[in-house]
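Reply to dn_fold:

You asked what the input looked like. This is it:
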Amino acid sequence: MQAKSQRSKGEDGATSSLNIAIETLDIAREDSSITPAKAVFGSVSTLLKTIRVRFPFCGPLAVG
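and this is what came back:
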C-alpha cells in the first residue's frame, strides 16, 4: 500500500512539473521577438501537453 501512495505522489509531482514547464514555454513564446524561437517554444509546449495528456494512462512497464 505504501508503494502505491508514493507512486501517486510521484505522478502528481511529474504532472505539476509538466504544467509549470508548459506555462513557462507559453510565456516565453509570447515574450520572444525571434520568430524561430517562437516556433520552437510552441512545438515543445505542444509536445509536453501531449505527454501530460498521455501520462495518466501509462502504467508501469511490463518486464519480461
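Residues 2-31 form the longest helix (30 residues).
Hope that clears it up.
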